[in-house]
Amino acid sequence: METEFSEAKPLYSKAEAKLEASRCLYCYDAPCTRACPTSIDVALFIRQIAVDNIKGSAKTILSANMLGDSCAQVCPVEVLCAGACVFNHLNHSPIKIGRLQKYATHTALKDEASTGKKLFEPMPKTGKKVALIGAGPASLSCAAHLALSGVDAVIFEAKGYPGGLNVAGIAPYKLYTHDALDETHWILDHGVTLHTNISIGKEISFDVLQKDYDAIFIGIGLGHDRRVLKGDSSQGLWGATELIRKLKTQPGFSLPENLKRTLVIGGGNTSIDIARELAMLGTAGDVTMVYRRTEKEMPGYNHEMEGARKYGVNLIENLGPQSANFEYGKITSVTFKPRHGGDEIIIDCDLVVEAIGQKKWSLSLGLDIDLEQNGTIKVNPLTCETNLKNVYAGGDCINGGKEVVNAVADGKAAAFAMISEFGIKGPHEVTRSNNYG
Known about the structure:
- This protein has 15 helices and 13 strands.
- It is an alpha/beta fold.
- The strands form three sheets. It has a five-stranded parallel β-sheet with strand order 3-2-1-4-13, sandwiched between helices. It has a five-stranded parallel β-sheet with strand order 5-12-6-7-8. A three-stranded antiparallel β-sheet has the order 9-10-11, with no helix packed on it.
């Protein structure tokens, strides 16, 4: 079904990319670079595009962010690099950094696939081995930098496919599944080993990993959707990530016909994504988001909400869900409680999507590992090492659910901390962005 969505930010042509790159001021100590969690040298890669050095541009991007292709498409550049562009203060449109990054990486990786000439060659094997739990962006980033440094990186993934939320959880108008898989396999092709359908604690124990590997990286992401209302998908009540996954990866999946109104409960970026996605499909009826606080208090980005409104998404503020109401096994309405008191409000609907967060796998690891009060794994913010020696963690399992680029930054930081601990000279120098977090 995701093929029904057109890309929100189509690939630039060569002429478009060079024209946009020529607008850049190539700032010294560029604020766009300082705003990037992976510290990509933005001014440099844009200058390289301007002089038609696309391979060099891609290497600049990917040496800092090995998932630079997907990040170009899913990063909230409006609040990161492009949001820091000096043109914002000069009454000009900021440089389209994400689209330029996509142009460079897409073009270079396509050329690599056709010519066989690799952008990066791994260093000789060092004899060191690292096990990575989970095959999402954090682990893939970590594994890529380890493999390029001559470390055997072995990923264990519980599902039957790698890629994590990049493959199954990103709104299709931002990133297609096949593009995410292509990027994942590009990383694996640098010498990373992947084992799928293996759950730590079932098929293999954590103790065995500690015995057989020099270090461990935990990149398990988050768990299932949190739910408030009682009911399931057969009744028309879905969790947001569950529904996005169905829309992206299950051939032949479709929503019920003749839907009149869909309610999306929540105010974060996931709720905005699924609301916009459903509105774009045109088969979900009127799509309305319902949030327990005001729009100003929503954690979702303003630019994302503006984009959703362009497709007809509405927002109702200050209502908290209380119960779902059914007839003949199908949802017919939801009862809400006003934030500031008053009578309960019943809103008719025939499809409901809850986007109120996800559970944390880290609570079920069964390890003597320190956790934050909210259940995320506690790490050293510079190295991503846990309280357990040579055990690192990164991504949503330590930050509770941030951006793909934050997960990539974690994996990168952990990889270089391991490389330093092993006494290995890695192929790239890494710095932790001041804006990380």
